[in-house]
Design brief:
The protein is of the alpha/beta class. The protein contains nine helices and twelve strands.
Length: about 300
């Protein structure tokens, strides 16, 4: 068998590909796990209502939620919105070639493997300690098609082959902020280069009024891809609170009607902003070059932490 290779052409280091089936009569009750990782202290907290489900936090900030027995179960609202975008990116069940920037506990790669079997996925995660924790406690099922690479997201993106991805999912946070080198127009150009002509870029961002950061990100991608949309809760879009916003960009028209129906039907309904409304939001914002790029804004105290 050939050695698997990732988007940079280097040998991949997949998370172990097998795990035993849970036996409710024999498995002990799961207990929390705490471990120092490269960028803080990670905790795995078991869900008392779902036997093989776990919440991953880093320095108290929720990062991922995974149910090993039900990978299509998505707990976080913004993750469901990203999943909706993946659901409408191609015909139901059609495999996709996906590049994930940011890994966490691999929630969306597991979701895509379950809903689109045969997908080929590369996950880029810079925190080797976090990867080791996930490999030990939340291993992937056999034949998942997911390869994990310990690498910086921008470096991996710039080294990835041109036109190699149907979807790029970006969910990279250093602590609670998107790193500056992933917020520039040069980064947006690198993403556009890796996407196929029909490809979709989907990113989890966070901002609040007056949306200087979000407007800059929209200006970046508007300069390289013609079709954009933002998914967020109305209270966030109206500037009433700081929160997540999912940015979508593509060289092909976005399936806005299908996406709007899906996000409106969630427990916490969201809106899809596009067209004239999005142009009004961008207003006079200009693309942000590497030299001027800054991290996303610091969330208000308690915005994303537990308790």
């Amino acid at each position: 068998m050939d050695t698997p290779t990732g988007p940079t052409g280097t040998a991949a280091r997949p998370i172990p590909d097998t795990h035993p089936q849970a036996d409710p009569d024999q498995d002990p009750d799961p207990v929390p796990v705490t471990r120092p990782v490269d960028h803080g202290t990670a905790k795995l907290l078991p869900d008392v209502d779902r036997r093989r489900a776990w919440l991953l936090t880093v320095d108290g900030a929720p990062q991922s939620y995974v149910d090993l027995d039900a990978p299509a179960h998505l707990e976080f609202e913004y993750v469901r919105r990203l999943a909706h975008a993946l659901d409408v990116a191609a015909a139901p069940g059609e495999p996709l070639d996906a590049l994930h920037l940011g890994g966490g506990a691999l929630t969306l790669p597991r979701y895509l493997a379950a809903t689109r079997p045969g997908s080929r996925q590369h996950v880029i995660e810079a925190d080797r300690g976090l990867l080791a924790l996930v490999a030990e406690h939340l291993p992937l099922p056999a034949g998942s098609g997911i390869e994990v690479h310990a690498q910086d997201a921008r470096t991996a993106l710039e080294e990835a082959p041109e036109g190699s991805a149907d979807v790029i999912v970006a969910d990279v946070f250093g602590g609670s902020r998107v790193p500056a080198h992933l917020t520039s127009v040069e980064y947006a150009r690198a993403a556009a280069r890796v996407l196929r002509p029909h490809g979709l870029y989907a990113a989890n961002l966070a901002d609040g009024a007056p949306f200087d950061f979000l407007r800059g990100q929209l200006a970046n991608f508007a300069s390289v891809l013609p079709y954009l949309a933002v998914i967020a809760e109305p209270s966030v879009l109206r500037g009433r609170r700081f929160g997540n916003a999912v940015l979508l960009a593509s060289s092909a028209e976005l399936p806005l009607a299908a996406l709007t129906r899906r996000v409106a039907g969630d427990a916490f309904p969201a809106r899809v902003e596009h067209g004239a409304a999005l142009r009004r939001l961008i207003a006079g914002a200009l693309p942000v070059r590497d030299a001027e790029a800054t991290p996303s804004p610091e969330p208000p105290s308690g915005a994303f932490s537990l308790g």
